[in-house]
C-alpha cells in the first residue's frame, strides 16, 4: 500500500503563508482615501506571479480568512467581518477573482507571459467591477451612483495599478526564477 501524496507539500504551505504575509504587509502601506491607495494589489500580483495560480490563490484565500477572523491584515490595520462587509470590502474580496482568473489561465495555457498579463488585467477588471457594485450597494442606502463610485474607486487607481502590475512582473518573474517556484 502506497502513501497518498499530500495536497500541498511543507514547502508549498510555507510559500502560501509567506504570500499571505506579503499581501498583508503591502496592505499596511497605505494612503487613506474613500478607497485607500495601498500596495495591496502589488502584493496580490507578486504572489500570483511568483507562486503561480494554485499557491497564489490559496495565499489570497488565507489572507482573506485571516482578516475575516479579526487579524489586522487589511489597510489601516483593520480586520474582522466589518472590514469585509463595509463599502470597500468588495475590492478585497475581488482579489480572489483575480487569483481565480490567473489560476484558470495557468491551467489552460501554462505560464506564458502574455497570458499571465491578460489574466491579471482581466482579474483586476473583475475585481474593480465586483468591488464597485459592492461599494454602491453598501454605501449609505442608495446615495452612491455608478459614475461617482467609478470616479472614487476605479479611475484614479487604473494608472497606479498598471504601474504596480508592471513592477510586479519585473520583480516577480525574477524571484520566480530564483526560487524555482
Secondary structure elements and pairings:
Layout: H1 10-28, E1 30-31, E2 37-38, H2 40-68, H3 81-85, H4 89-109, H5 113-138, H6 146-153, H7 157-179
Antiparallel strand pairs: 1-2
Helix pairs in contact: 1-2, 2-4, 2-7, 4-5, 5-6
Can you tell me about this structure?
- This protein is mostly helical.
- It has a single domain, classed as Arp2/3 complex 21 kDa subunit ARPC3 (Orthogonal Bundle).
- The chain has seven helices and two strands, in the order H-E-E-H-H-H-H-H-H.
- It has helices at 10-28, 40-68, 81-85, 89-109, 113-138, 146-153, 157-179, and strands spanning 30-31, 37-38.
- The chain has a two-stranded antiparallel ribbon.
- Strand 1 (30-31) and strand 2 form a beta hairpin.
- Helix 2 (40-68) packs across helix 4 (89-109).
- The model has no long low-confidence stretch (mean pLDDT 94).
CATH class designation? Mainly Alpha
**Compute the gyration radius: what is it?**
16 Å
Q: Estimate the strand proportion.
A: under 5%
Overall outline = globular
Separation, N- and C-terminal Cα atoms:
30 Å
**Which structural class do the helices and strands define?**
mainly alpha
Query: What kind of assembly state do the chains in view correspond to?
Result: single chain
Number of strands: 2
> How many separate domains make up the residues?
1
Amino acid at each position: 500500500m502506497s502513501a497518498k501524496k499530500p495536497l500541498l507539500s511543507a514547502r508549498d504551505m510555507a510559500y502560501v503563508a509567506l504570500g499571505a504575509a506579503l499581501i498583508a504587509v503591502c496592505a499596511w502601506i497605505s494612503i487613506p482615501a474613500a478607497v485607500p491607495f495601498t500596495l495591496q494589489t502589488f502584493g496580490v500580483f507578486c504572489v500570483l506571479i511568483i507562486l503561480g495560480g494554485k499557491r497564489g490563490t490559496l495565499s489570497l484565500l488565507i489572507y482573506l480568512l485571516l482578516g475575516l477572523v479579526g487579524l489586522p491584515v487589511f489597510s489601516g490595520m483593520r480586520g474582522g467581518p466589518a472590514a469585509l462587509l463595509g463599502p470597500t470590502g468588495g475590492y478585497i474580496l475581488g482579489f480572489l477573482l483575480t487569483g481565480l482568473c490567473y489560476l484558470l489561465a495557468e491551467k489552460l495555457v501554462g505560464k506564458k507571459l502574455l497570458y499571465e498579463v491578460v489574466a491579471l488585467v482581466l482579474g483586476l477588471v473583475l475585481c474593480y467591477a465586483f468591488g464597485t457594485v459592492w461599494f454602491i450597494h453598501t454605501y449609505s442606502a442608495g446615495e452612491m451612483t455608478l459614475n461617482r463610485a467609478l470616479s472614487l474607486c476605479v479611475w484614479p487607481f487604473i494608472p497606479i495599478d498598471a504601474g504596480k502590475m508592471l513592477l510586479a512582473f519585473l520583480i516577480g518573474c525574477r524571484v520566480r526564477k530564483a526560487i524555482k517556484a
